[in-house]
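Quick start: load a record and inspect it. Here is Chemotaxis protein CheV:
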Amino acid sequence: MKASISKANQSQGMLLFTLNMQKQRFAIGTLKVREIVPFMPTTQIPYSHQHVVGTVSIRGLTVPVIDMAAAIGFRPIALKSTTVPIWS
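Running the structure step on this input writes:
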């Protein structure tokens, strides 16, 4: 999954965070993105929803990690060091 920030509509000044997932492009308004963090190992949660990969600790806060590809009907992603979590 590759990610970038681009201008969507210069007349309105809207910024979008775009990402490619399984050969399709998606966008999230940058106002919805709190932070893009480097990959870190997750802690699994027993009996959690199938799309919840686990949790990570970001500056003392426990944040769930959700496989958005699987959540919207794509095949689940394989977590690796180039995976980029987005915190919104």
